[in-house]
């Protein structure tokens, strides 16, 4: 399967298009003498994957003309000290939005950290206020990966209304919120949704019913050909680093879908890398722009 096969969903290109739109809006704000959006990120410890994602987020900010701040702390920072840093960002009028990169060290209660973020600045959309508003259909800062998936389907021209979407994985940051968004009565959604997890009985049989598969499990190549109805649309969220001696970096990135055997069956499919990952970053930028403009919570 060539990389540029027509049925590939090019998340990287679609994310670029969104960034160009955001950059134009930043230029407009600037010309109107308004403040440029500013995103901050807190990174605790030295996890390789987290370092890459946070670096990509900061670079993306520069690309669209945002201000950006990266705050780094050692893995032994106390929970109290981290909560104080979160509060400092809450209180800093220069910062429009910020994220605390997950996972956090085990001695820190991630829920507590997330609940300390002011919902107005919660551009990850992880705060219970934003999640609750999303469920209720109120304006909210939406989690980036789930909204990125919905946006990707829309911009790739994939029909969702009435389609059966099967989501595999029920995490708070991907599986659960994407299942909620896909079921919403929106032009870009209106799916019938099934949410699968590690206790799901006869999982291959359930996934085989899907018109749209969203795989968010974190197990490389979990979705195999026998689970895919011919013609299904396949969205691969997984990004697991596996050791690869053939790569300069020493690792390669693996999705949750066995691409080699599933791609020939799928009508459309996202690659890893170059699919959902870049969309997550584009939607984070979009949330920061919306936060800066007070679109969700008027200033
Ligand atoms: N591209 C992007 O922008 C992003 C990518 N990711 C990637 O997506 C993947 C998932 O991340 P995340 O949602 O945080 O993962 P979590 O580890 O938080 O959740 C994994 C989910 O998969 C389910 N699961 C695990 N094993 C099985 C199995 N054998 N059968 C069925 N379900 C199973 C778990 O079920 P249970 O609840 O029963 O334990 C759980 O609900 C990871 O590879 C992550 O790196 C994540 C965020 C953004
Ligand atoms: N507070 C918080 N918010 C997050 O949004 C968050 C998080 N914590 N912790 C980890 C997960 C994971 N995640 C990714 C984002 C971008 C890519 C991405 O851009 N991937 C590129 C490849 C990058 C590479 O080369 O490694 C791609 O798929 O093409 C991947 C994964 C955000 N997450
Ligand atoms: Mg997790």
From TrEMBL:
One of its GO terms (cellular component) is cytosol. Its EC number is 1.5.1.5, 3.5.4.9. Residues 9-124 form the Tetrahydrofolate dehydrogenase/cyclohydrolase catalytic domain. GO terms for biological process: L-histidine biosynthetic process; methionine biosynthetic process; purine nucleotide biosynthetic process; tetrahydrofolate interconversion. InterPro entries: Aminoacid_DH-like_N_sf, NAD(P)-bd_dom_sf, THF_DH/CycHdrlase, THF_DH/CycHdrlase_cat_dom, THF_DH/CycHdrlase_CS, THF_DH/CycHdrlase_NAD-bd_dom. Pfam families: THF_DHG_CYH, THF_DHG_CYH_C. Residues 143-293 form the Tetrahydrofolate dehydrogenase/cyclohydrolase NAD(P)-binding domain. One of its GO terms (molecular function) is methylenetetrahydrofolate dehydrogenase (NADP+) activity. It comes from the Bacteria. Pathway: One-carbon metabolism; tetrahydrofolate interconversion. The keyword NADP applies. Keywords: Amino-acid biosynthesis, Histidine biosynthesis, Hydrolase, Methionine biosynthesis, Multifunctional enzyme, NADP, One-carbon metabolism, Oxidoreductase, Purine biosynthesis. NADP(+) binds at residues 169-171, 239. The keyword Hydrolase applies. Gene3D superfamilies: Leucine Dehydrogenase, chain A, domain 1 (3.40.50.10860), NAD(P)-binding Rossmann-like Domain (3.40.50.720). It catalyses: (6R)-5,10-methylene-5,6,7,8-tetrahydrofolate + NADP(+) = (6R)-5,10-methenyltetrahydrofolate + NADPH; (6R)-5,10-methenyltetrahydrofolate + H2O = (6R)-10-formyltetrahydrofolate + H(+). Belongs to the tetrahydrofolate dehydrogenase/cyclohydrolase family. Homodimer. Catalyzes the oxidation of 5,10-methylenetetrahydrofolate to 5,10-methenyltetrahydrofolate and then the hydrolysis of 5,10-methenyltetrahydrofolate to 10-formyltetrahydrofolate. This is Bifunctional protein FolD. It comes from Hymenobacter polaris.
